[in-house]
Amino acid sequence: QKEVEQDPGPLSVPEGAIVSLNCTYSNSAFQYFMWYRQYSRKGPELLMYTYSSGNKEDGRFTAQVDKSSKYISLFIRDSQPSDSATYLCAIAINTGNQFYFGTGTSLTVIP
Amino acid sequence: ETGVTQSPTHLIKTRGQQVTLRCSSQSGHNTVSWYQQALGQGPQFIFQYYREEENGRGNFPPRFSGLQFPNYSSELNVNALELDDSALYLCASSDPQGETQYFGPGTRLLVL
Prior knowledge:
- The complex is a heterodimer.
- In chain A, strands 2, 4, 5, 9, 10 and 11 form a six-stranded mixed beta sheet that branches. In chain A, strands 1-3-8-7-6 form a five-stranded antiparallel beta sheet, with no helix packed on it.
- In chain A, strand 4 (32-38) and strand 5 form a beta hairpin.
- Helix content of chain A is 0%, strand content 55%.
- By secondary structure, chain A is mainly β.
- Chain B has strands at 5-7, 10-13, 19-24, 31-37, 44-50, 53-57, 64-68, 74-78, 87-94, 102-103, 107-111.
- In chain B, strands 2, 4, 5, 6, 9, 10 and 11 form a seven-stranded mixed beta sheet that branches. A four-stranded antiparallel beta sheet of chain B has the order 1-3-8-7, with no helix packed on it.
- In chain B, a hairpin with a 5-residue loop joins strand 7 and strand 8 (74-78).
- Chain B is 0% helix and 51% strand.
- Chain B contains no helices and eleven strands.
- The model of chain B has no long low-confidence stretch (mean pLDDT 92).
- Chains A and B meet through strand 4, strand 5 and strand 10 of A and strand 4, strand 5, strand 9 and strand 10 of B.
């Protein structure tokens, strides 16, 4: 069983739509939750990180963690064509140790 | 502040050969982690180096080895290359007191 599961998509939405990306995990020891964006043939770029439960907002992006359900989400408001990329969730017990990644969700925002 | 850099960007090798990939960590970061990302998959943890010592290893065979240097740059060595080693190899640096890991652009390895 994988430590973290992510729906691979692909997901295709019109410009301006609200996008919801989700991951689930199995081990309650995980405390750190990250979202990375990866453009084709590039390295992952950190978008958001959250410690423990709660919400975190940065511009059009909101990360949400529900530790009781072991469920993490990333919401993108007013999606833009430049948001078209693969979004990877990552979890860790400690940020100094290994990260466990989901398989990534491919998102296309259509103009 | 410079980000994480990796070299080379692309590499083609044949089965059985050996390869060395290099990573320079972000300024001030003393921890380097290496990941393998196969096509269509998320990155898989290979190992991590902290102050020149291996500090954790994923489910990869011993033919995957590494080094970290006093300036915190790092190398990933893979011996006896197999076709399944074809992937994007990512290096990430972090400070143990930092918030998370920051990735380089990766080295794309093709094994023929």
